[in-house]
Design brief:
Structural class: alpha+beta
Largest sheet: 6 strands, mixed
Mean pLDDT: 94
Distance between the termini: 70 Å
Number of strands: 14
Length: 479
């Protein structure tokens, strides 16, 4: 098979009839028609449609070695620097379509599957290795959509908290039988939960204390006993004018409940081996390949934010003020820094132990630490520049009413009438003040986990020995 189009994606998810709950009720009809999902699923379908557009086909697809059909570029295991560049271009074509707002667009999880298939021997057991490779091929040839869950419920975050196995909350292996593993409990945080073909689950830190948490697998989203409990949707079902971002890109997050779910043995990648579980992220190229995708998207998101900010400045003619220029420059500096770090990662890429061309980890780790700290500042700058204009934003229906002409006149700006000005400011509001905006800030802050831990990880992993040695040599100079 080849890459799919948007209609295939929508039809396939609708046919699954996944067990999805929202606002206290189970969704019984087509998921793509539900108010909480229809906007983002339509946006996701548009990404799949782009794989068939002549302008993008060479970037978004490549020829499968198995069938010769076109498959998604995000499944391409890079063997050369040119492959890395192709992957980056494909990430950014999709990110441009969703203005960087979809953190779980299909290329993110496709990269996860590709990465672990490339280092499948790391899973140790011969059957698990084969399972991982087979699953990658299955995903690639069928262009499956995936979500994942890497997080346990926040019951007690103290360092020495242990759960009673008989009444565990976090999902764990409770049984092994001829059919497979039996998983029971809960996991967080499945973004796009219920609106993908598959759910991928990998181990979290709890396996250090209990091998029952040392598992990895993937199962169809409609597997019996699997339930997605969604948070309140921030898509209010209103027009693109009133909610230009949330009406299109609201990726609903969900808690995943496993009620004695059986994982078939051919879908198990890891079971009970705490040593391998502890090395999955350190001995693989998971981190640099994932951050390569994420940074590619973050660059596009930053470009879009810069465009909004400059549009605000132009609309109300405040560009002559130095404090405004300084604020815009902050975004420019971050944008150019991210671009330089991404370029450096590709220029200094090298083949890893698994035969994969991997971008240089160091600049990507810097990018991973930079963006969570600067993104909230971008939003603050938007609020400071927009000021009262972010409050004086009537709805589209107001402009369609008998007072519409008055609003067009009284709410005009230096370069556009009131309708167009409010349209711009509603976009800025949706990104800086709405519920959607709050979720985006939190999401970017913790995309790869606690920023303090990320900084500690960079401190531990970054080799500074040659610089220390240089200082020592300088201090010992005789001349």
């Amino acid at each position: 098979m080849s890459c799919i189009n948007g209609k295939t994606y929508l039809d396939r998810i609708n046919r699954l009839h996944n067990n999805v709950w929202i606002n206290g009720a189970k969704i019984t009809g087509n998921l793509s028609e539900h108010p909480a999902f229809k906007g983002v699923m339509k946006s996701q379908a548009m990404l799949y449609d782009m794989q068939y557009e002549k302008a993008f086909q060479d970037i978004l697809t490549f020829k499968s070695s198995s069938t010769g059909d076109n498959v998604g570029t995000s499944y391409l295991e890079p063997k050369t620097k040119e492959d890395l560049a192709k992957r980056r271009k494909s990430f950014q074509v999709w990110a441009h379509q969703n203005v960087g707002m979809m953190g779980r667009s299909p290329d993110y999880m496709n990269t996860v599957v590709m990465t672990f298939a490339a280092c499948a021997k790391l899973f140790g057991d011969k059957q698990y290795t084969e399972n991982m490779r087979n699953f990658y091929t299955h995903c690639r040839e069928n262009d499956l959509s995936l979500t994942h869950t890497f997080i346990q419920p926040q019951v007690n975050r103290s360092a020495l908290y242990f759960e009673n196995a008989s009444d565990a909350i976090a999902a764990r292996v409770i049984e092994e039988n001829k059919d497979g593993l039996v998983i029971h409990g809960a996991r967080l945080l499945a973004t796009q939960g219920g609106m993908t073909d598959e759910l991928l689950v990998f181990p979290t830190g709890a396996f250090h204390f209990d091998a029952a948490y040392a598992y990895a697998f993937s199962i169809p989203s409609n597997t019996p006993g699997l339930k997605f409990v969604c948070r309140e949707s921030f898509d209010n079902g209103k027009s693109h004018y009133d909610h230009p971002l949330s009406s299109r890109f609201e990726e609903v997050d969900s808690v995943v409940l496993f009620d004695h779910v059986t994982i078939p043995w051919d879908r198990v990648f890891l079971n009970g081996n705490t040593d391998i579980a502890s090395r999955l992220y350190t001995d693989s190229s998971f981190m640099p390949l994932q951050v390569h995708q994420v940074t590619s998207r973050n660059i596009i998101k930053t470009e879009f934010i810069l465009g909004i900010l400059q549009s605000l400045v132009d609309a109300i003619k405040v560009g002559e003020y130095q404090h405004i220029q300084e604020k815009i420059t902050e975004v420019i500096v971050t944008l150019e820094t991210l671009k330089a770090l991404l370029t450096a990662s590709e220029v200094h890429a090298s083949i890893d132990q698994w035969g994969t061309m991997v971008p240089d980890r160091k600049p990507l780790m810097a990018a991973m630490n930079l963006f969570p700290r600067t993104y909230p500042r971008f939003i603050e700058i938007m609020q400071l520049i927009g000021a009262s204009g972010l409050v004086s934003i009537p709805t589209e229906m107001d402009f369609q009413s008998e007072i519409g002409d008055e609003l067009r006149h009284y709410l005009q700006s230096a370069d556009r009438d009131g309708y167009e000005k409010v349209k711009l400011f509603r976009l800025a509001w949706d990104l800086s003040m709405s519920s959607f905006a709050g979720r985006q800030i939190l999401y970017e802050r913790f995309f790869f986990g606690d920023p303090v831990r990320l900084a500690s990880g960079l401190y531990r992993d970054y080799d500074r020995s040659e610089y220390v040695k240089w200082v020592e040599e300088f201090l010992n100079r005789q001349k």
